[in-house]
Amino acid sequence: MKKNNNNKPFLSALLMLSMFFSMMAYAASPVAGTLIQNQASATYKDAGGVSQFATSNIVETVIQQVGALDLIQNQEKQGAAGNTIYFPHVLTNTGNGEDTYTLSAINQTGDGYDFSSFQIYADKNRDGVADSTTSITETDLLSAGEAFYFVVAAEVPVGAGVGTTGDIEVKGKSQFLPDEEEKTNIDKVTVTDQAVIDVTKSISGSEGASPSGTYKVTLSYVNNGAQTATNVTLIDALPAGMTYAGNSGEWSVESALALTDAGPSDSQGSGDTIIFCAYDASCTGLLKGAENTGSDSTTQLTAIIASVPAGDSGTLSFDVNIKSDLKAQILYNTAEYTYDGGSTPLPTNKVPFEVLEVPGVVANGSITDATDGVGESVTVATAPQGSIVSFNNIIWNKGNTVDTFEMTIDTANDTFPTGTVFQLFKSDGFTPLLDTNGEGTKDTGPIEPNAYYTVVLKAFLPAGEEGSTGYDVTKTATSSIDSSVFNTVTDHLQTIVAETVDLTNDVANTLGAGNDTVQSASSPVTTKTVAPGEQAVFLLNVNNEGTEVRNYILEYSKEKPFVAGSLDSGWNVTFHRDGGSGDCSTLGAEITATGNIAGAGNKQLCAAVDTPVDASGNGVVHPIYFRVFSSANNAEDIKFDAVVISVQPSVGIEPDQVGNIEPGGTVVYNHRIFNNGNTPLECLDVASSNTTTGWSSVIYLDVNNDGALDSDDTLLTNQTLAVGASFPILVKMFAPANAALGSIDTTTLTVTGNQDDGDSNPATCTGTAVTDNVTDITTASTADVNIVKTQALDSDCNGVDEGGYSSSTFSVPAQSCVMYRLTATNAGSTPVNNVRINDAAPVFTSFFGTASTTHGNITGGVAGDDGSIAAGSVSGASITLQSGQQMVLDFSIRLE
Hints:
Elements: E1 3-4, H1 12-26, E2 35-45, E3 51-62, E4 69-72, E5 75-79, E6 84-93, E7 101-107, E8 117-122, E9 147-155, E10 165-174, E11 182-191, E12 197-203, E13 207-208, E14 212-223, E15 229-236, E16 242-244, E17 250-251, E18 267-268, E19 274-278, E20 301-308, E21 313-322, E22 329-338, E23 346-355, E24 361-364, E25 378-384, E26 388-397, E27 403-409, E28 421-425, E29 443-447, E30 452-460, E31 471-479, E32 486-497, E33 501-504, E34 526-530, E35 535-544, E36 550-557, E37 572-578, E38 587-591, E39 593-597, E40 602-610, E41 621-629, E42 636-645, E43 651-654, E44 657-661, E45 666-675, E46 681-690, E47 696-701, E48 714-715, E49 719-721, E50 726-734, E51 744-755, E52 769-780, E53 785-794, E54 802-806, E55 817-826, E56 832-835, E57 838-840, E58 845-854, E59 868-870, E60 873-875, E61 879-881, E62 886-895
Parallel strand pairs: 5-11, 13-23, 25-32, 34-42, 44-52
Antiparallel strand pairs: 1-32, 2-3, 4-6, 6-9, 7-10, 8-9, 10-11, 12-14, 14-21, 15-20, 15-22, 16-21, 17-21, 18-19, 19-20, 22-23, 24-26, 26-30, 27-29, 27-31, 28-30, 31-32, 33-35, 35-40, 36-39, 36-41, 37-38, 37-40, 41-42, 43-45, 45-50, 46-49, 46-51, 47-48, 47-50, 51-52, 53-54, 53-55, 55-62, 56-61, ...
């Protein structure tokens, strides 16, 4: 893959940044102010059966500063009275934030003498020698992990006696936590009148890459005593990672002398002599240094100078190299020395060498091989549409220091379907990847050199997409130390597999081809025949033909193309679990979705179709399309079923009537004939039969629907009637002149008809016969009061009729008003007394306004009360009507 591993030493502008990260790597705790973020996640399956992730809010913790330090080292030296003795020290900020440290040196009590004076000097070049004569009392501002080198100069008093020892307490104290954090060293000087050798160590370079070199190490010695020192032994055991360059030794006393590395007893030099033996198998039997971790003196450099007169000085130098494949670190080296036959070596100052950070990264698909390109592309062969695809990307730290790698996704050039969402997760595949270093990009977190971290990329595929052309997305891992160091890895999905679902009727996994094929069928798969108002129940099987768990939404339509929820008025569809019988003969809980169905699994459910009570039974097939649909992958199937309403002809006549008639007179009764069935009727006629001899009746069609017999009305013969329709009839009753007062006749009216057989000949009545009847009860009396009720529309409820009063049927919108008029007429030949009209508000209505009573065509004052409304009833006045007179009661009702 594309990469850029720039392994050149950094520019000076980057060295400080490199050092900062190195210090972070070695700090005992996170740097003060570090923001620690954490985000949890949950996994679940949604209503569509799709595995989903939910992530929590991010919680943040800020690391507070902790002050700490380390101070090295305790030292013991010899010195002559009146001389100044130098003690090199190192103070390291082991806290987690920037701090400045106060430095001090004081005489100890209980020792042999007090020093005349103390001075502390900076040693920024770390060679064990004061940089200047300017004394200091505090360190520079030190970052976490940073060290400060300094030298304590202690003047031995002139009068100090030989053999006495003076002690100095050297103290470093945190200024961030001055009352809590301090460290001390004890430096001792024993007064002598003999030789006093002091040795310091330096290196020509303080930092370098791995590998690099050569660097020159110099051991500088001086005799500050009063006598000649003999057998001045210099020992240097180099730290791991630093190697001696053979035959590179040089002695300043004999500058032209080429020192050889072998021969532990061979003196070299013409005047002053030196024994030099360095890292050679022959270098046995020599004094082994305390810093030497080997088994004997063959793993160190040893130089034995025969003598160093008082006041003389010199140097021993040699070359070293830095090994390859070292982690970024600081190599510390302390040389040792002894003289005059001493057997316990004394340490020099500690010299650091920083192995510089060189970042490197490989992003691939292998956890065993860090070679670029291995395991790439990271490939997933197939994935269902609408699913979540995971790719494990291995991020190798190929640098020599702990590094954090910023992870970016190239969504501008990915070839995944539009709508794909990419997210990065930690190696567990569930916890979201976060920004751990505050750089504004999700990252791996710290990775040790030559170690790896798995970053999981999840691709959330959109529903409805499929294909086998291959899909790629590239991620880049970039070093947080050096943004020019990066590597890419590509994730590849070869095929997105379309998932299907099959909706069948009675048998699972056998009928239908799945995914919208049944809708195009020319005839329904299953047809149910039911009576009007009854329920047609279809047993359905939903077969998940994919590999993932899915949940399917249940829908219905009366038409194609499918329009979810479309039905004719009065029809209704609900879906249910089976009630336990396994055949939908009983229904369980109502549902709107199947619930989770495993891959290659199925579920049985029931679809209940409610038909309207007035559904026409004309043999028409009512299509019902059932659909199952998954929002996770857009898989659907539509099945064509149907309902047929059975033919149920029915006729009705109403109401029963009661009235009075004078002997030899007539009375007219109003009735209405209804088609109560679900199919048209024909050949409708009404026959009458009387129970009293001499009584008779004639039946008319109320042509103008005014409730009164007039010249427009015709005799009733052979009528037709559509479903739900009706027509009015008038029955004119005759009483014989000799009818006894008080005699009663009961007339039975029988309506008959037939289901319309579709024959255009109205005389052919072969359809199913229907019948119904009512009775009119008439009493012979000289008093005869009849009452007629008419109605008028008052849609805005303002008390003004719209279109006049009639007995015709009309439609009224909700919240409108209807005005009723009841007219009572004395059709007899004698007066009638205490005439009162009574009525009540129909169901779903309430009285509106007040009722009023008029006395029709009565002339002159007539005693009586006005109409009143109370407790859901209305009453007119109680009055006397002469023959031919009328009383009228008007009131209004309001529909709910």
